[in-house]
Give the backbone structure.
Amino acid sequence: MSPEADAPLEDRRAIVRDSLGVGLATGTYAISFGAVSVAAGLSVPQTCALSLLMFTGASQFALVGVIASGGAPLSGALTALLLGTRNTLYGLRLAPLLAWTGRRRLGAAHLLIDESTAMAVTRRTTEGARVGFLTTGASIFVLWNVFTLLGAIGGTAIGDPRTYGLDAAVGAAFLALLWPRLQQRHTVLVALLAAAVALGMVPVTAAGIPVLVAGGVVLLVGLFPRSAVDR
Amino acid sequence: MTWVAIVVAGVGCYLLKLAGLSVPARVLERPVVARVADLIPVALLAALVAIQVFTTGQALVLDARALALSAAVALLALRAPFLVVVFGSAAVAALVRLI
């Protein structure tokens, strides 16, 4: 994007290394998705179809979560779709940076998730952004599907994923993705506000809705000029 | 019915991703859109952290996950790599539950 042009070779290596790290960390916690999904009453093929076809973790967890709590499958689908709208916003942000068209864009769209966005959006060049996006997206896709299958087959055999602290690891992963964005005062304020709004909504709304309402907070904050929020 | 839900939501989620990548670039040139697009991941990630750590179902709870998150904050402040943050925090949760 900037006139500083091509990412140097070691930059590229660093991007690949960091992206594979994110891929490994994210892909492996699909084992908890596989286990949770089977426990919710989905079959092993249904669980794997979700990871292959939907491939966006929060939406997948939301869908099986609604089914687990006795909700209708189609209301689970709606929750998943609402959560999936944030990928549209990620795409909006990434489109000019990745600058892909045609078939490449059709393929890239499937890999558009929280982590591939996070590993691409901070790059200064299209080259760097593409390397970060593809390495993260593809490594997560492979591992996510393998570990979904393992989790689904293992199912109850590995016992409660909480024993291994896996439930806490998900929050830590989201925080680690958020961390680099918290460098300005107004982004910290937005993050705290969003967290507070989401927690406030939890007791009174269905699963998945609090996160969307928190996203709506941004629409309000974004309408004010930055200087007004900073002071 | 479950299969219908899986296919509908799966295809729908893909189309939502594709829509974002296909919007004309000039939409982002409007300052309000750029500002909102920058802040959206901040708000959603912060909300996801809060939900993952401080809730069980529809109840607000304070348990081992909160301590695990504190550990993650400390590790991030020390500039630990992503994997160390994630698995370090999981280890803290697992240890707290053992005690």
In short: Chain A touches chain B through 96 residues (CB under 8 Å).
